[in-house]
UniProtKB/TrEMBL annotation:
Coiled coil: none annotated. One of its GO terms (molecular function) is ATP binding. It comes from Chitinophaga ginsengisoli. Gene3D superfamilies: P-loop containing nucleotide triphosphate hydrolases. Pfam families: AAA. Residues 124-256 form the AAA+ ATPase domain. PANTHER family: AAA-FAMILY ATPASE, ATP-DEPENDENT ZINC METALLOPROTEASE FTSH. This is ATPase family protein associated with various cellular activities (AAA).
Length: 341
């Protein structure tokens, strides 16, 4: 079935209020999008679907039945997480220095080859901290780990957990870890530093200690085949004892010239779009130093789109060539906006 057929079915079942068939076609479209490498679209659809299911409480369940309790528990749990997803990303989607890529590859290997390590009674690294400036691939790296290991990943909404009632934070954390280990999911805690905010939310100084202690315990009792990924751009905010518990500690930094070059190639999809010539690439790479991968990619994609529009308007038929002047001015604007000299 083509994606247009799927979209027609979605319209039809949606209008007919036929929820079961609507869900099944949506899932088909998600699978189809993954297969055709429209990963972002697939992830977005997945989260729309999940949000829809979360809000849909219209159908009746018998009070006291198993499904009633499951639903209560699921609803409570869903409020604590942002997403539950699978990913098709791999390490090839990530640009980083050799050391970081090697460490990530080894971390993944430990889980792919856990049998061997177990045979020799060796521990498996399963707690990894990703830190560094925003837009340099912490979230992307976590998707790549999930994608390489083909595991579900739970993205934890730390903000929601921490701002809840006094004493609840520890309970919430424990709940998430229990569920994740039961379902063999990766736990991804983004903005890990917001644990430090417990201090601001609560008058009780014991609360912060309690939360950190809970976290330490959860870390210590995390089963070997479970994985915890934490990300932060404020590593300094983290408690030392907590920091020490991570098996792997990686900094994802701003790109240097070579890495900017790699990012450009990746974004130009190895020839789907072109840059005019080598010397312009060199000069614009220098221009882009200081910006994050995210900013560089964003400005390049905008420039690509504008160049395509230009070609269409001028009725030029060719592999789109990025208008470097446009890209340069976008980079300058971005730098000004972010106060980068
Ligand atoms: N190291 C990188 N390699 C390739 N693309 C990157 C990298 N870092 C960021 N990007 C691009 O920017 C987007 C946002 O990055 P993200 O992983 O969310 O950054 P962070 O979590 O560190 O703030 C990514 O989805 C990707 O498109
Ligand atoms: Mg992120």
């Amino acid at each position: 079935m083509s994606q247009f057929d799927l979209i027609k079915d979605i319209a039809k079942f949606g209008l007919e209020n036929d929820q079961d068939r609507l869900l099944s076609v949506l899932n088909e479209l998600i699978e189809y999008s993954k297969k055709t490498k429209k990963i972002n679209f697939a992830l977005q659809l997945q989260s729309i679907l999940k949000e829809g299911l979360r809000q849909n409480t219209s159908s009746l369940t018998k009070v006291g039945s198993d499904s009633y309790y499951n639903r209560l528990e699921d609803k409570e749990f869903n409020d604590l997480i942002l997403e539950k997803l699978t990913s098709d990303y791999t390490l090839n989607n990530l640009v980083a220095n050799e050391n970081v890529k090697e460490e990530l590859a080894l971390f993944i290997k430990e889980h792919k080859s856990s049998d061997i390590l177990r045979k020799f009674d060796l521990p498996i690294s399963n707690k990894i901290l990703l830190h560094g400036p925003s837009g340099c691939g912490k979230t992307l790296a976590s998707y790549a780990i999930a994608g390489e290991l083909k595991k579900m990943m739970i993205v934890v909404n730390l903000g929601a957990i921490v701002s809840s009632k006094l004493g609840e934070t520890s309970k919430n954390l424990a709940k998430i870890f229990r569920k994740a280990t039961a379902e063999n999911c990766i736990v991804f805690i983004d903005e890990f530093d917001s644990l430090g905010k417990v201090r601001d939310y609560s008058q009780d100084h014991g609360e912060m200690k309690r939360v950190v202690n809970t976290m330490l315990q959860l870390f210590d009792y995390l089963p070997q085949d479970s994985i915890l990924i934490a990300a932060t751009n404020q590593k300094d905010m983290l408690d030392d004892a907590l920091l020490r518990r991570f098996d792997v500690n990686l900094k994802l930094d701003l790109p240097n010239e070579r890495q900017i070059g790699e990012l450009i190639n990746l974004t130009l999809k190895n020839g789907h779009f072109n840059l005019p010539d080598k010397s312009t690439i060199k000069s614009i790479t220098k221009e882009a130093l200081g910006l994050s991968y995210f900013s560089i990619q964003k400005t390049l994609i905008t420039a690509i789109k504008r160049s395509i529009f230009e070609d269409v308007e001028n009725q030029v038929l060719r592999v789109p060539v990025v208008d470097v002047k446009v890209w340069k001015s976008l980079i300058t604007t971005e730098k000004i906006a972010l106060h980068i000299p």
